[in-house]
Each structure stands twice: as structure tokens, then as C-alpha cells.
Design brief:
Number of helices: 8
Strand order of the largest sheet: 3-4-5
Strand content: 5-15%
Order of helices and strands: HEHEHEHEHEHHH
Number of strands: 5
Shape: elongated
Structural class: mainly alpha
Helix content: 40-55%
Distance between the termini: 51 Å
Largest sheet: 3 strands, parallel
Radius of gyration: 19 Å
């Protein structure tokens, strides 16, 4: 939990709809710098009892957390890959992500993609999806399909192919001198 995750904006986006839904906002992740500002923001907006900072969640507990969720939101300003998107999709949870960094590539068309700096868009998207059971089901199925496109085996094979190509290039360049 740190500023690049953009949770403060998420808290601001959740506030206008908190009274419309029985859902709480659960934020998982070890506490990083500026977490107190995020907690204070929730209290300032009057939803401190509806926003839960869970801290670190063990890998073996993540599937249960995802599966218990109605929606997974990742408003990050920067991510290296975005593995939690695929984890949520594999658990059939509809996903909303920011449309920057690597996230759109990971999510494909299976997630709603929004500007990271537009809390009104996030409010509207969360409300629309939570109010539409058919859309949630469609997004859940699209997410399961998208998640199946990725595997550790495939990633390892692709990385090995890059190493092989680099080694072949190195061997070729040595013979040319």
C-alpha cells in the first residue's frame, strides 16, 4: 500500500456509492509509506468503517479473498506486470483497472479500463457493475478466459527463447570478429 497504487483516489471514488451498496472496500497489501494519509482520507470522507486495510495477505489466502469479492479494482499509476488482475480473473471476479502501464496488456478486453486520475469514472463504473448482475457474469467469464491465456510454463518458455536468441546472437557476433 503506497501512493503508486492510487488507493487514495479509490477511497474517494468509493465514498459517493458507499451508502448505496452493502459492500465494503478491502485493500490488501503490506503497509507502505503514506498509508496513514489513505486511512485519514477514508475517515475524512465518513467511510472509515467501510474501508479495511487488510495488510499482507498470504498467497494461500488470496483465492478465498478474491472469490468473496464482487469486484476487483486496481487503479495503479504504475505496475510492473499486474499479477493480481489475473488472480482475480481466475477466481471469476469482474475487474476494473487503470488504463496505464502494463495493466491493459494483461487484462485485455476482459476488464473495464479507466483513467487513473478520474475518480468520477471509477465511481460510475463500480456502481454500474455492482448494479448489473448480467454484466458481472459476462465480465467474470471473459476474465476466466483471459487468465487462461497466461501460465508460468508459457512465461518460462518465452524467457528461455529470449535467452536462446541472445546466446545465438552472441555466438554469431564472436564468429564475425
Amino acid at each position: 500500500v503506497q501512493p503508486r497504487k492510487n488507493y487514495q483516489m479509490l477511497v474517494q471514488a468509493f465514498a459517493p456509492i458507499a451508502d448505496q451498496f452493502p459492500h465494503d472496500l478491502a485493500i490488501a497489501g503490506g503497509k507502505g509509506w503514506m498509508v496513514d494519509e489513505m486511512i485519514n482520507e477514508a475517515h475524512h470522507l465518513g467511510i472509515g468503517d467501510r474501508v479495511h486495510f487488510l495488510g499482507f495477505v498470504a498467497d494461500e489466502d488470496l483465492p478465498a479473498l478474491y472469490s468473496a469479492s464482487s469486484l476487483f479494482v486496481m487503479p495503479s499509476i504504475y505496475e510492473g506486470f499486474g499479477l493480481p488482475i489475473l488472480e482475480a480473473m481466475a477466481c471469476a471476479v469482474p475487474v476494473i483497472i487503470s488504463n496505464i502501464s502494463s495493466l491493459p496488456e494483461v487484462a485485455g478486453n476482459a476488464a473495464v479500463q479507466l483513467p487513473a486520475d478520474d475518480p468520477d469514472a471509477w465511481t460510475a463504473a463500480m456502481s454500474e457493475i455492482l448494479n448489473d448482475e448480467n454484466r458481472r457474469a459476462e465480465m467474470a467469464e471473459a476474465g476466466r478466459i483471459q487468465a487462461r491465456r497466461f501460465s508460468w510454463r508459457q512465461a518460462a518458455d518465452e524467457l528461455l527463447a529470449v535467452y536462446d536468441a541472445l546466446l545465438d546472437k552472441e555466438a554469431t557476433s564472436r564468429h564475425n570478429y
